[in-house]
Fold this protein.
Amino acid sequence: MATQTTAVPGRLTFLQVAIALQTLSLFFQAVTAGMLLSSSHGEVLHDAGSRVMYGASMIYVLAAILAWRPGGGSPRPILHASVFLVLASVQVVLGIAHMPSLHVPLGVLMFGLSVLALGQVLSTRSSERTGTRS
């Protein structure tokens, strides 16, 4: 017997928290990238932030799998999270190789995609609260 699970209205889901964490970690990376130019602490903070960002990308994949499994919904969020993890892996390699001409634009792209994903899950959440579907 399958059990359908739904989110409790007014509470954040694991997937929403994971995407928010990923977006915040990418924003932190942008701030510390700017600090690289003006502060000796920028490199240490950017390095630590890269580890958090990569971990947040892994948590996003896990959250997408866990959100899909109980309800039997679309596996599309898993694809999005997996692609993002691949982008994060490429970003780490480019950062280690000191290739800012590719590292910086990819970081901007990743932040934009993460903001879009966050906006999508939050708009879905607000439409579920009001009872409307877009």
